[in-house]
Amino acid sequence: MGLTQAQRAIVTRAQSLGSGxxxxxxxxxxxxxxxxxxxxxxxxxTRFPELPETLPEFFGSSPPSRLELPGVPFLExxxxxxxxxxxxxxxxxxxxxxHKARLKYERILETQPVPTIDQVGPRGLLQxxxxxxxxxxxxxxxxxxxxxxxxxxxxxxxxxxxxxxxxAVGGVPVSARRSPIKRRNAPTKGRxxxxxxxxxxxxxxxxxxxxASGQGRWRExxxxxxxxxxxxxxxxxxxxxxxxxxxxSELSAAFFGAGGEVYVGRDAWAHLEALAGSTMARFxxxxxxxxxxxxxxxxxxxxxxxxxxxxxxxxxxxxxxxxFSIVRASQADAxxxxxxxxxxxxxxxx
Length: 350
Fold this sequence. Notes:
Blueprint: H1 5-15, H2 28-41, H3 74-84, H4 88-111, H5 117-120, H6 133-158, H7 161-168, E1 172-174, E2 182-183, E3 186-190, E4 193-197, E5 200-205, H8 215-230, E6 234-239, H9 246-257, E7 261-264, H10 266-297, E8 306-310, E9 314-319, E10 322-327
Parallel strand pairs: 5-6, 6-7
Antiparallel strand pairs: 1-4, 2-3, 4-5, 8-9, 9-10
Helix pairs in contact: 1-4, 2-3, 2-4, 4-6, 4-7, 4-10, 8-9
């Protein structure tokens, strides 16, 4: 039957390099691995007897760059998969986006440059004299490098988390520039929406914490449901972590007050899975819900010991007795990638 134009676009997006020195693309062997994983996830192994019975775990100890399946015709297998399950193309798009993000972060750990004392030196005035100057300089550089890689992690997941949930439930993320949700106090400006699905506008959060962000930012949060209502959309708040607090109650009241809906904890996951249908509900469960639930369960009461070691050839991290290492690229291959703009459209190419 052949692939549709939209399905070919999904493949092209998965295999495109993107921009920036740390961008990644996935080859046919990696795409074949992802299709094989989907076949396994959906229990379709009898339809694909050429696939091995066991595969490396997607969330396993192997580096993401080693997750490939050579010797299998990717496009032919992908075409057969989508003919068996019509929703498996979106499953592939979401899984490929997640895999590329993990590959890119592996690349970031390999290449993120060590900062210079010129960048952080003035911060040392806050502790100068309390420790040896060489030790303080080293502490300042470590602090900045860890901040940099964490900032990159936040950036990468910020452009991944909501889009894959949106795609799974049949919606799309919308940038402020393209948004139909207009600000009441500035009608020419749009509001970024995590997921727009027909007449429902979703705000998706892992957790609403008691710690207040800036007053302006919190006011923006509270005004979102009213902007949705006045723009003709039903505001929907989805909070994955059920931990109650005053901020969550206040935000929920704002959504209810604007004629909206609120789903928290188990209700949130049940709502998303009901929208997603059986195929994409499986994706949400295995690649979003279960990993996040495991992290929330294992949140330590006290921080474990941390040991970091970095030289031109290798980064080694030991935390709580667990160790992993990354081979570092040469400094010539490392680059400071420009920050992404606030509006990133079509993150999955679906």
